[in-house]
Amino acid sequence: MGPLLRRTWAPQGRTPRLLQRSRHREKVSIAAAFWWAPRPRRRLGLYYETLRDGYYNNERMAGFLERLMRELPGRALVVWDGGNMHKGDPIRDLVTRVAPRLHLERLPAYAPMLNPVEPVWSWLKHSRLANYPPPDTATSERRIHRELESIRSDQDFLRSMWQASDLPLPATLHL
What we know:
The protein is α+β, with helices and mostly antiparallel strands. The chain has helices at 58-71, 89-98, 118-128, 137-151, 155-164, and strands at residues 28-37, 43-52, 76-80, 102-106. It is globular. The relative contact order is 0.19.
């Protein structure tokens, strides 16, 4: 809940102050996925969920993927890292249950630069939420939703986020 502190402008002699609560463990966790549809309109999309005062384990990630699959028609390829929340029985059970619609590919170890969602996290944290001390998790969650909703349908912005990663943009999305 503590803000990422960044430089800012202020009148000379009036140092800005950020008031925040301390010694608390409240947090908002976020799971997100880029999706792209080659037909009919060659579009990128962003699907996300938040979780207040919790973390994404493999059971919650399986639920996230299941809800993502309900949103997307057709087949899906998920490219993600080798984190513990991306492994285990709940994930294997989901893949078996929805096969052949879902295929999982693992990124190489220690390669966050290949994950196109990483630039979104950087933009959110270092730009939109910098110097922002929310009073509680509900307020923080609302702000995160507002920021992510603002980019969900912005094709130029989503393309720029994808291109900020080292993962090549699918050829069908080059216009």
